[in-house]
Amino acid sequence: MKNRNWEYPYDLFIKSIAQKMRYTNDEKLKEYDLTSPQALLLELIEREIRHGNEITRKNLESVMNLKGSSITNLLNGLVRKGCIIRSAGISDGRTFQIQVTAKGKNILTEMEKVFEETEEQLLKGMSQEEKKVFLDLLIKAYKNLYEEFD
What sequence ranges are listed for the domain HTH marR-type (predicted)? Predict the structure, then answer.
């Protein structure tokens, strides 16, 4: 067994940061009646539409790192809240025709501010170089875990 640094366990810090970011975002998103996962999914859908990409549940599962049933629940919530309109794909039932409504677009504009504020708080006191190194290390750790466990 490798020597683990019990004084500063990485997983504790990473989990605590993720929980705090989600809690902070959820609190700020309450006024829009959205949760962080719903907001992130709405943002992803808008980006896919803007780039002309076909939206599949498999793609959403992969990017959001969630199971199909969770994606379906999030999509249903966005439909109920009037943020998107969803219908089955024309040529393939696994694809969706999704439109972001005017309400959804307005929320996206506000959401961007919410996520930027939380990100600024996370990175406060870091130089541009430190921010770049931090992101590079996060990406490396992410890839390490997903290559190892996928």
Answer: 1-143
